[in-house]
Specification:
The chain is mainly α and 173 residues long. 85% of the residues lie in helices and 0% in strands. Helix 1 crosses helix 5 and helix 3 crosses helix 5.
Amino acid sequence: MQLHDWFYDISQIMMEPVLWVIYLSFIYALFETGRFTMMAVLRYRNRDQFHALVYPDGDLSGYPIVQFHRQRPNASLNEIEVYALRQLEVVRLVTRVCPMLGLIATLIPMGPALLSLTENNVVLMGELLRTAFTAVILALAAASLTFWVAGVKKRWFAEEITKAEKQLQSTGV
């Protein structure tokens, strides 16, 4: 067995785990889009509470950074920023990794698909290309959804951090 055959076998073994990660990422993207929608509704409903000069005792659902700061009033601005980054970590990771996984899932079956074309096995070639293109479409859809969610949440969290910073300045911490 030659070295390139060994690496070929490794690449073929990678296909199934890559597909599972893409499928799970797509489901996560749909779930995160739903969570984002609910957060938008809560933010809209509680926007007057958020825009008050000081943190009210009322409901601040939809404003996780402000809630974190209200629960930990002695938290520094750096701790608040780290909390905000932690809230965005998974969605940003999915945004960046999914296109790469889509490319991997496209390229792995391309070799066997081209080989089956040389053997006039159009059925096998069609099945392999279907898998490749389905994977890349799901990966790009997941990345697109999570990119959008991450972008808007980043802006929302920046607004909340600004609010927390003003709150820290007014209390003299």
